[in-house]
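For practice. Supply one:
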Amino acid sequence: MEFKVSSQELLKSISDVSKAIPGKAALAILENFLFVLKGNELEITASDSELTLRTRLEVESTVEEGSMAIPAKHITEFLKALPDQPISIKTSGDSTFECRYQNGSFQLPYFPAEDYPDIKGASEDAVTVVFPAQTLAEGISGTIYAAADDEMRPAMNGIFFDIDAASTTLVASDSHKLICYSANDVKSPGKYSFILHKKSAAVLRSILGKDNDEVNVSFDASTVVFSFGATTMICRLIVGKFPKYRDVIPQNNSNVLRIDRVQFLNTIKRIAVCASKSNSHIKLDLKTNQIEATAQDLGFATTAYEKIACDYNGTDMTIGFKSPFLIEILSNMSCETLVMKFADPRRAALIVPSEEEMESDRICGILMPVAI
């Protein structure tokens, strides 16, 4: 195997896939990048067996095709310290490869490509759906924080993709809060679904670039493949049944609050400073055209109280929430005016953007109250 390539282009490519290199690999071979050179195209793969990233790079010239697995840490650190210049990589018969550059060279061991696990994608009968890249990135960003970390209910540890003929909804929940992101620009011939682990979703969000227009999503019962540009991401899906989330979305909450989102968010952040560290509870007293927000920690004799002007149409009510959950939801919405709908202090509150901003902000949140 021998080829010539730009050092910075190679560094960029291995950096794109390096997020799949495990911190502690169950198999030592997974601490390596897999290089496969065919013609003038170099395919680079990294995997932790659950998540695989693969990219393609056009090299400047190829002397001899081949494949090898090379230590990820060493090649990455070397390329980061090397100024941009053409480099030549050549394998030798003693299981080492040499990288030559303008003022020197270095050698590293490599391992047979045959030792690298065979990474399989989705099956031939997989379903394929096309997502606008921006929609997919926004959907993940808007829901991932609500995913659980629950060993007893693994289906809650990811984002549920509910794909239908009319639209697609991304959903995440930890039982305390539930967030839905509606994507009306993603449709399919039938009804399908899968659960993407939040770790894989976070990696996908981080590598979706602004120059990507569309993402082809192919999936079967156990695997999903995201393809965009020169990058392919293969993930093992969470097997399980996601709760019937539509059944828990309140339909008849008749007490309606309209308020400036940023003002409300900043108030909750200030009040939460004085909330009890053991439960983070805050109290909201809802009255006509006014909210009174209160938090206290009797153990440390701290109390905070603030009034906010608002548009509230409903019966007077006192309701409590965990402040971190409310702050998360308010922070991850982009609307200017927020609408919260309540039934009573014991049932879930519905949080949505105002009617005027419903098209631009596709997030819908549900938050369970706490006893005050």
Notes: The first helix runs from residue 7 to 17. The mean pLDDT is 94. The two ends are 69 Å apart (CA to CA). The helical segments are 7-17, 72-80, 133-143, 198-207, 261-272, 323-331.
